[in-house]
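User: Sequence in, structure out. Go.
Assistant: Echoing your sequence, followed by the structure tokens.
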Amino acid sequence: MNAEEILGEKAASLFLEGYLCSESVLLTFSEYQGIKSELIPRIATAFGAGFGRKGLICGCVTAALMVIGLERGRDTNLQDKEKAFILARKFCEKFEERFGSLFCFELTGCDLLAEKGRKEYAEKKIKEKKCVNFVKETISLLMKLIET
């Protein structure tokens, strides 16, 4: 197993253990980068299920953008932001190309704000059948983009 597969499995395992998709991606990649902070995974929590179950941008995508910020972000307003912007656009393009959308509602087909949608999500095992793949693929895409 290569590093990409190992990290993908680690993120998937965290996700299936109960961490949110956003938390799983950020936790896994920050550990890989050697970043330790009491803010991780806290900073990613509200992004789960498309911004607190709103079905907006997938938590994997928002976590990936946080990872890109950790990797290529800037420390002052005088530093260049283009490296991070370019990588963020590339990631979003690749994710959307792979899965057809960046939006949690479109990816899962469930309205997670509604009890009915959460029940459908559980009954259809969308977490295990779809979302876990979003988590793994996010790690894979990040590895490919950041390592280049």
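User: And one key feature?
Assistant: Residues 3-146 form one domain.
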